[in-house]
Design a protein that fits this description.
By secondary structure, the protein is an alpha+beta fold. It has one helix and two strands, in the order αββ.
């Protein structure tokens, strides 16, 4: 649900528990404050559970 709201509102929430990012790791983190006003085309959400139960949800913005 949160992924779909992210897609609808165009706002990326901050990366949880990120105080200091590693300069050797070249990823686009969202530290501290949400990033708003983005034109997102799609989002992906991973869910991992005990016993090997995994699920992936991919949502794409409607082109209509």
């Amino acid at each position: 649900m949160l992924s779909v709201l992210t897609l609808a509102r165009g706002t990326l929430l901050p990366t949880m528990h990120l105080d200091v990012s590693d300069p050797a790791c070249d990823l686009d983190y969202v530290p501290g404050v949400a990033r708003a006003g983005l034109e997102l085309d799609a989002v992906m959400s991973y869910s991992f559970a005990f016993g090997g139960n995994n699920a992936v949800l991919v949502a794409q913005r409607s082109q209509a």
